[in-house]
Amino acid sequence: MENKKFKSKRFMLILVVILSILIPPATYAATGTGSSTTSYDNTYYAEAIGKTGTTLKSTLHNIIDDNTKLSYSAVWNALMDTDEDPNNSNNVILLYTGRSQGKSTKGSGVNNWNREHVWAKSHGDFGTKAGPGTDIHHLRPTDVSVNSTRGNLDFDNGGVADREATLCKYDSDSWEPRDSVKGDVARMLFYMAVRYEGDSGEIDLELNNKVNNGSAPYFGKLSTLLQWNAQDPVDDFERNRNDIIYNKYQHNRNPFIDHPEWARQIWG
């Protein structure tokens, strides 16, 4: 007959196996309760490993700020590469609707797709000049009419469903993207707030816990973005996008795709 101690050990082993299946390692990294590792930790991120707070933010800025800058016209071709539908090389995936749409349908027509500035370019009034206005780490293909509805709204929860992007919501001062890209949006904004710090003649972009930020170089709502980062872990589409931008276009990475836990370590 098994003794109680042996039964207890066997039960704990079974429990650990079950939990490891139900909760994959990426979840711990995304919630900030654990840490992730990448092949870049001993090279690209070597100076950042082990740091926290403003020191981590400053170190990451110095790592990612010396990137190749694209022209606004070059962004079209870049997005057709970075956001290509993995199941159809003729299409791109639109950020807010999730729709797979032909690359050739880019333009300004109501059913075309265009270049969405996730950090709305009016928040800091940086326009489409090379730099924040053309940084493809935060530029994504979106439906033209959905892009217009989102406008320059800050991000937060709540509102009514969008007529076309039905899984997104909006009200007078905020936009809530569909659940499966909430983390993507958060990590893009984290990147922008670290990449653009006001040096080298560039704008200083910062996150805050407000909406209605208008033309100020601020974006919110930080507490919601941190929740979204935890709620929607990094997926293969994001990782592939990050790799393409790094290897082929800007030659810098979004640290919060590689290490989503760094958002909590910087902004708490």
UniProtKB/TrEMBL annotation:
Signal peptide range: 1-29
InterPro entries per record: Endonuclease-I, His-Me_finger_sf
Gene Ontology MF terms: endonuclease activity; hydrolase activity
Name listed for the protein in its UniProt record: Endonuclease I
A Pfam family that the UniProt record links to this protein: Endonuclease_1
Record keywords, A-Z: Endonuclease, Hydrolase, Nuclease, Signal
Organismal lineage: Bacteria, Bacillati, Bacillota, Clostridia, Eubacteriales
